[in-house]
Amino acid sequence: MSTTEIGCYTARQPRKGNRTRDVIAANFGTFFEWFDLLVYAMFAITISKLFFPQGDPQSALLFSLMTFASSFLIRPVGAVVLGIMADKVGRRTTLSFAAMLMLAGTVLIAVSPTYDVIGVWAPVILVTGRLLQGFSVGGEFGTANSYLTEQSASRKAFFASLQFSASGLAVLAASLFAYCLNHFLTQDQINSWGWRVPFLFGCLIGPVGLYIRSKIEETADFEQVKRTGATVQNPLAETFKSHKRFVLIGAVVAAAGVVASFLNLYMPTFAINNLGLTKDDAFIASICSGVVCTIVPMIGGITADRLGTVKVMRTALILGVILVFPLFQMLTRSPSLLTLAVFQCTLSLVFYSFYYAPIGSLLSQLFPTSCRTTGVSIAYVIAQTFFGGITPLVVGFMVKATGSVMAPAYYIVIIAAFALIGLYASRKHVT
Hints:
about 425 residues; 20 helices; 2 strands; about 0% strand; H+-coupled_symporters; MFS_dom; symport; transmembrane; MFS transporter
């Protein structure tokens, strides 16, 4: 079986088997991860009222957003532990273990009593659930990305983009849940039990994902490394010894996509609190964004395979920077369902589908098979930790400090400038 070297990437034809099943299984955890993340973000205001003391409503919301961010603080640990596990034990086993942890965290959140029932233990249980989810997510992306990009030698960007289509489907599903609950239930019903419904849905589909993942085959790349004894004793040490430059490049490049994606994620809360839009408007706009995020990333992946990953990502990033200020001005001057939907769909189209979706291909090519998952996980989780979970907090702080709802646009532009430097540095190592 032939191999070809593309930078650090060893490209091989995958073993024969049920590729469709394996790809679905790899992406199931991504859907599960983003669905739970989005549901929490969309019900952040409700959760803040139920799980934290209500002396100051704004402080309660801040505590809720801090809980949202807490799962990101544990992600580096998950990235290291699960990344090493995937590079030493295998991608298949690690994917199943990550899904199990995610399910456990979701169950805790779904069944946890509120502050009025058990007092301070309510936020403790909530944070524990978020930490379990965060640990799982820390290693989920890198492991699933390695598994998907090792499925094909010539279509790495397309297979990598499927993770982002799965995330887009999660946006769509979470938004539909939020819209239906807010449309058909009263606020008292939502506060009483309605907010738990999407989490309980996650509890129901979790075991299905575990079963599907238990049936997948290991990748041919990893099996060859293991068969030839090319695995490294300590993937973490090897990553920082031989590939630390690529960790930094990967993190910087990923940061722009992370910030844009999480800003899009935060937009329902932002629109309700700062622009005076209704919950229905915010959720309908997110549904529209979810449709774009489900379909278009695959087009972005196909385009990147044909024209070049770095070229497509660079073009999308520059276009996004050009559009971000007019989009914010349009939204803040004339806030409505239409302008919010246009804002979110454009952000999803440019930043998410053509910049962020092919990034898995870029990251996988920066690291060899023996430490690929560890390297990808660490690079990605650095971007997620420092720019993902804190984005809602940074946006909220910037708006409050400057008094301008345009402030988040400057944040995106600053991060994008560093990402362009990272893309330039990666161009010789990525097709």
